[in-house]
Design brief:
7-stranded mixed sheet; disordered N terminus; 13 helices; 430 residues; single chain; alpha+beta
Length: 430
């Protein structure tokens, strides 16, 4: 446990004030942060060789393509291209205009091409064109997880709008693009900043499948904005990509980061930290493995249940640290808490598996390793934090364990209220 002594340059009241201020700051930041897992909206891309060039089949939420960077939200009443807006009660409704897509196809094509760039060996590829568009209701979307099902999504008409497609924010879009006179030899990079300023960007799961034309494919995945380097037979490249996804996924989740920080501060030495971290890792590896093979409940109640339980583990850890009950961080307790946190990662994996038709074993191992590397990065950050704590006079005024535990309690209480409300709502709808 970290020993704390007061410096002669500050009063006890000053120290308490600092603790309160810093605890409120971490609470304010955390309440704006998203949970480290939730339902993901897929952006699926198939790249395959075709006669005379290379074909790209893309599926994504339609709003991602139509909302401009200055979008202020549905309450703003801003105009959105290719839609008709109408005030219904106290809300704006944006309805798809199918005829607009046909009459202004060239303008829509330019919007698509402005949203995606493709490079080969560092050189931007020109000549990309949009050939077919399919707009559908997101609740009625057909499979797009394999090259065959993706190709089946398009009809003969250049623009196909399914029956029942009305509201923009309930709609998805499939795009067929073609680049002439190239092959899939070499290394490619695909980039897209679409939605970079939208709140939902961190819930966008990018799933890229590259097909070699002989029945083999390689899957790359990431979250958020799209920047993926790939090759037709880039299995090592895909492994590294999944590794990065695992690292980013854990570091983006403040709830998981907070609990790892609590483990470190509650331990008397690095050996005890290692033992507790290992128990925690074993626990979440078990439930992560369950997600790999699809053994995760599919009810809408399950995600808010796990989110609420994770928040409760942080509340427990924060209270135990505040009351100097470090022995409550026992190995069996850490194993059990790890099981709960692991379900969060397993939900992400199960959704990726459902969208890709299955991930290979190496990709799943890479994702798991990425999570562990991310956890090691958190512990490394704790080391730097402790060094700064001991060497900087200003930080010595702060009772670090009290500050972190108070912040964790405030954050977890807010999350329990929010997530528990969602859980109760889902249970009542059963």
């Amino acid at each position: 446990m970290l020993a704390h002594s007061l410096s002669g340059t500050g009063s006890l009241t000053d120290n308490k004030l600092l603790n309160v201020v810093f605890s409120l700051l971490i609470w304010a930041a955390a309440t704006q942060a998203q949970a480290h897992f939730t339902h993901f909206e897929p952006r699926i891309i198939h790249v395959s060789p075709q006669q005379g060039g290379v074909q790209l089949l893309l599926r994504m939420p339609l709003p991602l393509l139509l909302l401009d960077e200055d979008w202020q939200g549905g309450d703003s009443g801003q105009a959105i291209p290719f839609t008709q807006r109408e005030r219904v009660g106290d809300q704006w409704v944006y309805r798809i205009d199918p005829a607009d897509f046909e009459h202004r196809f060239a303008e829509f094509e330019q919007r698509v091409l402005a949203g995606y760039t493709l490079h080969r060996e560092g050189q931007r590829l020109e000549g990309l064109s949009l050939t077919h568009v399919h707009i559908f209701n997101s609740d009625q979307r057909k499979p797009f997880s394999t090259l065959a099902t993706a190709e089946a999504a398009f009809g003969v008409d250049k623009v196909q709008v399914d029956a029942g497609v009305i509201e923009l924010f309930d709609s998805g879009i499939d795009l067929r693009l073609f680049i002439p006179a190239i092959s899939l030899a070499g290394s490619f990079t695909i980039d897209s900043d679409l939605g970079i300023r939208l709140n939902a960007i961190e819930r966008l799961a990018n799933i890229l499948q590259v097909h070699d034309g002989r029945g083999d494919s390689t899957t790359f995945s990431s979250i958020g904005t799209l920047h993926t380097t790939f090759a037709a037979q880039g299995h090592s490249m895909a492994f590294i990509g999944q590794l990065k996804s695992g690292v980013i996924h854990i570091l983006a989740g403040l709830d998981h980061v907070l609990f790892v920080l609590l483990i470190a501060l509650a331990s008397a030495n690095w050996l005890q930290t290692l033992q507790r971290a290992t128990a925690f890792t074993l626990g979440h590896s078990v439930t992560l493995a369950l997600g790999m093979i699809g053994y995760v409940p599919v009810g809408n109640w399950f995600i808010p249940l796990i989110e609420t339980l994770i928040a409760l583990t942080i509340l427990y850890g924060g209270i135990m640290l505040a009351y100097k009950q470090q022995h409550r961080f026992g190995l069996l307790t850490m194993l059990f808490v790890g099981l709960i946190h692991g379900f969060g990662f397993s939900i992400v994996l199960s959704e990726l598996v459902s969208q890709t038709g299955g991930l290979n074993v190496l990709s799943l191992i890479a994702f798991n390793l990425g999570i562990e590397f991310g956890q090691l990065a958190i512990y490394a950050a704790v080391v730097l934090l402790l060094l700064a704590y001991h060497r900087m006079a200003f930080l010595r005024h702060l009772d670090l364990p009290v500050f972190v535990s108070a912040g964790a309690v405030l954050v977890s209480a807010s999350w329990i209220y929010e997530r528990g409300g969602l859980l109760l709502s889902e249970l009542q709808s059963l």
